[in-house]
Design a protein that fits this description.
Largest sheet: 7 strands, mixed
Number of strands: 7
Shape: globular
Strand content: 15-25%
Distance between the termini: 33 Å
């Protein structure tokens, strides 16, 4: 039976200003993933952006009361039910923002198990780019999500830059990360789950990356 339900990509943006470079990066990553998904399969692709700025009061109330508002519950459900997730935060004090962390503190630590995620961040200087590896990737590892290999950091000087012969520009990194998310989503949903090699596949069968991670995951 052919799948008819749309693939759902959800982007979480923790930007505070309007307009926001964090929201712009989330939109461009979502567009790159959507373009690749649309080109490689026949299902519709839905994209939703969760603006944490609009949920800040609801998040704070939930942290102290334990009860989410209707809007916050809908945002949490969108994130946990998505086929693929994009998480983008501005850099504050050499880490993710408090609003970003507070939102993901509200998500059960098993709710994102196996979910493909692109991690991304924005900042004023490229010196903070390692926040992706020392803060965001460990956070989503704890949440048992599968972060794609390419993470995207956008400093102020990256916008409008096409890179040079030694460095990929921001548009190239966005396309690569979006493509990796699309591939991970399709590998996870094409048949309902990633298939482990059977006896007929031979000893040289390749185990999908997601399956390798699942086999190594300790509960």
């Amino acid at each position: 039976m052919f799948a008819t339900t749309p693939l759902r990509i959800v982007a979480v943006s923790a930007g505070l200003s309007q307009p926001s470079s964090t929201r712009l990066l989330a939109d461009r990553l979502a567009a790159a993933a959507r373009e690749r998904l649309a080109a490689e399969q026949d299902r519709d692709v839905e994209v939703q952006v969760v603006e944490l700025r609009d949920l800040a009061v609801d998040i704070a109330n939930h942290l102290v009361s334990g009860f989410p508002s209707t809007k916050l519950r809908a945002a949490i459900d969108a994130v946990t039910e998505a086929d693929g997730l994009i998480a983008v935060t501005p850099v504050f004090t050499a880490s993710y923002s408090g609003l970003f962390k507070s939102f993901f503190d509200l998500i059960d630590n098993t709710a994102l198990t196996g979910k493909p995620v692109v991690i991304a961040a924005t900042g004023g200087t490229a010196r903070h780019s390692l926040v992706l590896e020392h803060a965001l990737r460990p956070l989503f590892s704890y949440l048992r999500a599968v972060t794609v290999p390419t993470s995207v950091y956008a400093a102020s000087e990256d916008w409008g830059s096409s890179g040079d012969e030694y460095t990929e520009g921001l548009p190239s990194r966005i396309r690569r990360a979006g493509g990796e998310l699309a591939s991970a989503v399709l590998g996870r949903t094409a048949s309902g789950a990633s298939r482990a090699p059977g006896l007929d596949d031979g000893e040289d069968a390749v185990v999908p990356f997601e399956q390798q991670l699942a086999d190594l995951r300790l509960d």
